[in-house]
Amino acid sequence: MRRALGLLVVAAVLGAVIYVVMGRDGRLPIEMPGSKTCQARTASGSVSLAPEQMANAATIAATGITMGIPDRGVVIALATAMQESELFNLSYGDRDSLGLFQQRPSQGWGTAEQVQDPRYAARAFYNQLMRVPGWEQMRLTEAAQAVQRSAYPEAYQKWESDAQVLGEALLGTHATAVTCTRAGEPTLRGAAATEALAAGLAADWGTAADAVADAARGRLSITAVHDRSGWQLAYWLVAHSANHSVSRVRYGVHEWTVDSGEWAQLDIPVADTADVVIAQVHPA
After folding, report:
1. For 181-232, how does the pLDDT look when each residue is reduced to its tens digit (9 = 90+)?
2. ∠ CA(4), CA(26), CA(129), 5° rounding?
């Protein structure tokens, strides 16, 4: 009897430890690298994120935009990734779950390498979401759950407000909505940084961002189709400023600099820069 009671106590303690370690919604604990030096601000509120989180969010949004996903779908994808990984591209998870969306290779989501590619993972999520009948009329958590099939189907709902703010910002519906401040010294500078930035932009946006690179000046210029797309591209550049060594972004009469971390209005004629997004990398 005593031995049986002891085993029950050990089991209860282990269960409590697992409960605390895993969290109430079953997620593994996530160590937050770096400080929250990026922000999204719209009329709906504000969200603060680490540079890696904002860059991943911008890639999720860009993938949705280039696929023609409705705005609501982008918000659902952001909320799902916030719940599953807190927008960190994880190399671990429950069982064989990996990446931003904690997709499982054993469940047909792709190889381990594929699901840890933010672009592939986002496309895979959107493709499944588009197959859900009536997803646009569902509550956010119901639409996300129809794709994810989580053991915690209501867990996504708590991220709706933050995902709405982040989505509104990255989708270009508000001017000067996304900001980041300097997050360490750049790993690349000059021509090398310009080439890497052009490659990253092409990977996320494809032909939607036909950039003209001036490696000698450390500069990229992109012609925007319309005002909203201009802000979408500008915010992508700001969101990726830490990993792509971007020092300033200009769109229209507004300019963001990494040193100030904010957008400022410039005293220049609107006609001169109305349709052009310009990014400058750190000089060599």
Report:
1. 998 899 899 999 999 999 999 999 998 898 999 999 999 999 998 999 999 9
2. 145
Query: For residue 140, which of 55, 60, 82, 57 has the smallest C-alpha distance?
Result: 82
Measured distance CA(240)–CA(245) in Å, rounded:
8
Q: Taking Cα atoms as reference points, which of 256, 194, 240, 244 lies closest to residue 221?
A: 194
State how far the Cα of 16 lies from the Cα of 7, in Å rounded to an integer: 14
Of 184, 180, 197, nearest to 239 by C-alpha is 180
Judge whether 148 and 80 are in contact, CB under 8 Å.
yes
**Cα 187 to Cα 278: distance, rounded to the nearest angstrom:** 21
pLDDT at position 125: 98
Q: How far apart are CA 129 and CA 149, in angstroms?
A: 12
pLDDT tens readout for residues 163-172: 999 999 999 9
For residue 258 the two structure tokens come to 């990494």
